[in-house]
Amino acid sequence: xxxxxxxxxxxxxxxxxxxxxxxxxxxxxxxxxxxxxxxxxxxxxxxxxxxxxxxxxxxxxxxxxxxxxxxxxxxxxxxxxxxxxxxxxxxxxxxxxxxxxxxxxxxxxxxxxxxxxxxxxxxxxxxxxxxxxxxxxxxxxxxxxxxxxxxxxxxxxxxxxxxxxxxxxxxxxxxxxxxxxxxxxxxxxxxxxxxxxxxxxxxxxxxxxxxxxxxxxxxxxxxxxxxxxxxxxxxxxxxxxxxxxxxxxxxxxxxxxxxxxxxxxxxxxxxx
Length: 272
Prior knowledge:
alpha/beta, six-stranded mixed beta sheet
């Protein structure tokens, strides 16, 4: 979400002049207080979980700084490792984690991430993207189309795909009305478009605005990191906690997770 305020200024052409001046002033003020993303998130690619018999599950995490867990300082604090660890325990198998997500990514940046993921024939892919599309004013349909295309390619490989739709960015502590209102409206409209695109492509949407935002709104001091824009380790832990139940439920509904275990035979048709 780096650079959020400068890019929000693209909306000023569609609001009254007086309101535009207020938003401009707020955006410049907030931009001066948010540090640039300079330190990359911890590396996390590799096997997760206790050694076990059977083929490891392969999981890819795609998307933006949220997916990459910018602000985390240790691998175990990242969304990818948190989800892979929980899944390994539920499945009784190791998880081979691959994270092509990177800081600053937009929905249009998903194709090369999908290419990287498909080289490992993932069983499960988790995508968190959209925050930068909100702040850089990507048209909703355009962002949703890029996301839907990514989900469809992954599904065509036999991969189960889960998408955390963009949370409501109006919860960001530095934002004040009317800038907060503008971010909230754009977030919710994009999330709606994302949900439709993900379902149409055969994926499973996870509504972060509904499941995650209440925790960040209730305890912003603990949930946000030092820059007050990206989550803290506690925030990423909460994001993993709300993502896991719908992920497990969908895997069971699809017949992939049975009796608490993910079966080797479940992907035989998808690998060709």
